[in-house]
Design brief:
single chain; 523 residues; alpha/beta; Rossmann fold; TIM Barrel; Arc Repressor Mutant, subunit A; 3 domains; seven-stranded mixed beta sheet; six-stranded parallel beta sheet
Length: 523
């Protein structure tokens, strides 16, 4: 059985890294005995013509796609293209968005044949052998599909108790060199589950309220695997990694015993951390922590059931700094009952922490308490255009704040940050920056250059150089490629040149030669 899985596009602003959910899905299909390919359009160009070529080459029995609310339309449109190319192809989708919009999705989008509901690892293993036996689908718990005009929903499956038996993510199926070139951290999880009831979050409903932690040795094995794949940075994306000091210390000790010299970061609540924990993390290479604080107003925190106090946030930031790590805080704007006064208090609190912080617009995703019980709160959701659920614009109002009021608040913060960044960019041009700020600017340019090369398939499109053009020796091929890229990529020509040189020296790019010339390609 052959299964192709789509990694749906999303923008550079969302920090594209090797997709963890898709890798788990691919691993589940492999565990079921399937031959699996991932069609990755996160860091490559998508076109219907390209999709058709990939389908003709692989000839899968079924196509799957994962999506969150933000990129649901991208995934849905690709599956629509699949159906137009091969109307008989079974199309499947999973992920948090469709798990909580089952009926709506199947009735609205005929290009989606089947939905995996919730945690799907075991569901996939049970379903895969039955791909061509629709009469047996009802025996598989955790799916929904159309049967004529009816929607068949077999119900949610229980969460997996023994998470250690879940296969390791199938990252080997991803175009890893392209992700190495982009340079974002590789995300991994050390457990699943969250007992907290934040009304804006899907975590508890999607992965369960009971925390299910992976065996420490398996966590370390996965870290070693990521390092062996050539990555030098990891992000631990658990909801509650930093909540058990003893376990965190065991993992950190194991990293040192295995000589895992890698930089890493983690997400964290502010009410579950200790100085002992943070000291151990810093000693094992952790250099930054992202805290979700959400509001600087105690009444707002209580209303959204965040379950933290502002003094806990201050303490967490303090001990993070004391351990030598960089703290970052994120806040939400447009929470239910938000007022100009609560926003002012949040802004004052955020500034008082004296750390890097940012604001995100509230996006009440399907399945969250806010979305399902919005009438219970001082909040109005203004659209069900899922493409706008990216936390980058106001899609709600409260009785005290219009969407424009919320935008204006964020715009003032953006103006402040943009002003600081403009000064750094100007100083780069005039040679007045610190070496650290120069590296920041160069890294910013390199990231945008790299993403342009990847998303436009520029190596594939401009990588062939005919033999007649290669009279200048071994360096001529790289010079010609670099010049072609300079002609089509906006940006600093020197940084473009240095970026290509770095790709080649690191082995990310290589060339195949024959009598007709040479062709550059990603390794």
């Amino acid at each position: 059985m052959r299964v192709a899985i789509i990694a749906s596009p999303y923008p550079l602003e969302e920090f594209p890294s090797p997709p963890l959910g898709i890798s788990y899905v691919a691993a589940a299909f492999e565990a079921a005995g399937c031959e699996v390919r991932i069609f990755d359009y996160i860091i490559s160009c998508y076109s219907k013509e390209k999709l058709a070529r990939q389908l003709a080459d692989f000839q899968p029995d079924a196509m799957g796609a994962g999506s969150v609310t933000m990129n649901f339309y991208e995934a849905q449109k690709i599956l629509r293209d699949v159906k137009s190319i091969d109307p008989d192809m079974l199309t499947m989708m999973g992920g948090p968005h469709v798990s909580f919009t089952v009926e709506e999705t199947l009735r609205t989008y005929p290009e989606i044949d089947l939905i995996f509901i919730g945690e799907a690892d075991d569901t996939i293993v049970d379903f895969a052998p039955l791909i061509h036996q629709k009469n047996k689908w009802q025996s598989v718990r955790g799916i929904a599909f159309r049967d004529g005009k009816e929607i068949v929903n077999t119900g949610r499956r229980d969460f997996i108790t023994q998470v250690d038996r879940i296969p390791m993510p199938a990252r080997h199926l991803l175009p890893l060199t392209r992700y190495r070139a982009l340079g974002y951290p590789v995300s991994m999880i050390t457990g699943r589950g969250c007992p907290h009831g934040c009304i804006f979050c899907l975590g508890r409903k999607m992965v369960g309220s009971k925390v299910r932690r992976r065996n420490t040795e398996l966590v370390l094995d996965e870290m070693e695997q990521i390092v062996s794949m050539g990555f030098d940075r990891i992000n631990i994306a658990d909801d509650l990694f930093a909540s058990d000091t003893k376990r965190v210390k065991e993992i950190c000790s194991g990293m040192k015993e295995r000589n895992l010299k890698i930089n890493w970061s983690a997400f964290s609540r502010v009410d579950t951390v200790t100085q002992e924990m943070f000291d151990a993390m810093a000693d094992a290479g952790c250099d930054s922590i992202s805290f979700g604080i959400e509001s600087g107003c105690p009444e707002m925190l209580k209303r959204v059931r965040k379950g933290i106090k502002l003094e806990q946030a201050r303490d967490a930031v303090r001990i993070c700094k004391q351990a030598g790590m960089l703290p970052h805080a994120s806040f939400m704007v447009g929470l239910p009952g938000e007022t100009p006064e609560s926003l002012t208090r949040t802004d004052e609190f955020a500034r008082s922490l004296d750390i890097v912080y940012g604001y995100h617009y509230l996006a009440p995703f399907p399945g969250t308490t806010l979305c399902e019980k919005v009438s219970d709160y001082d909040l109005e959701i203004l659209t069900r255009d899922w493409s706008k659920y990216d936390a980058n614009d106001a899609i709600v109002r409260t009785s005290s704040l219009s969407p424009q009021d919320i935008r204006d608040f964020v715009a003032r913060y953006d103006a402040l940050m943009n002003g600081i960044w403009k000064e750094v960019m100007d100083n780069y041009k005039t040679g007045r920056n610190t070496p650290h700020d120069d590296l920041r600017v160069q890294g910013h340019h390199r990231m945008n250059i790299t993403f342009a090369i990847l998303k436009k398939d520029l190596i594939e499109n401009f990588g062939f150089i005919d033999a007649k053009s290669l009279n200048g020796g071994g360096n001529e091929a790289s010079r010609i490629l670099t010049q072609r890229l300079k002609n089509v990529i906006p940006g600093d020509p020197e940084i473009i040149e240095n970026t290509i040189k770095d790709y080649i020296s690191r082995g990310y790019l290589t060339q195949d030669q024959n009598s007709e010339g040479c062709t550059w390609r990603w390794t």
